[in-house]
Amino acid sequence: MNGYEYTWKIGVEFAANRSLETAKPLADDVCLADLYTGHKYLVQKVFEAKPIDKAFPEMPDTAIQTWPVGTLTDDELNALRQRAKYTPGQFSRPFEAIVFSW
Q: How do residues 41-99 score in pLDDT, each as one tens digit?
């Protein structure tokens, strides 16, 4: 992907093992939504990842610190899924489809 890659920390987490790729850069106060679960996450900080922030050395060198901020309503989740053309399938899982939310 030709975009932006982040080590993604959620809540109180030392070494994150999750990453996120986006087409647009992330900034503080952006809200992300998981199209599988409907969970929302607020980006608190975008920063240079230190070794303690990453579970593995090959993870992205830019990190985001997010906090859970609730869950989308069924109507909001369905609208975002339609806009992103996302339909959860038998093998779908959390964090596979993340979108910028409101």
A: 999 999 999 999 999 999 999 999 999 999 999 999 999 999 999 999 999 999 999 99
Bridge partners, residue 47, by sequence: 63
Phi, psi of 10 (to 5 degrees): -120, 125
**What is the domain count for the chain?**
1
DSSP of the chain: --SEEEEEEESS-SSB--EEEESS---TT-EEEETTT-EEEEEEEEEEPPGGGBSSTTS-SEEEEEEEEEE--HHHHHHHHHHHT----TT--TTSSEEE--
The pLDDT confidence band at residue 2, using thresholds 50, 70 and 90, is: confident
Judge whether 96 and 42 are in contact, CB under 8 Å: no
Residue 92, domain extent: 4-100
Largest CA distance in the chain: 40
Contact 100, 32 (CB under 8 A): yes
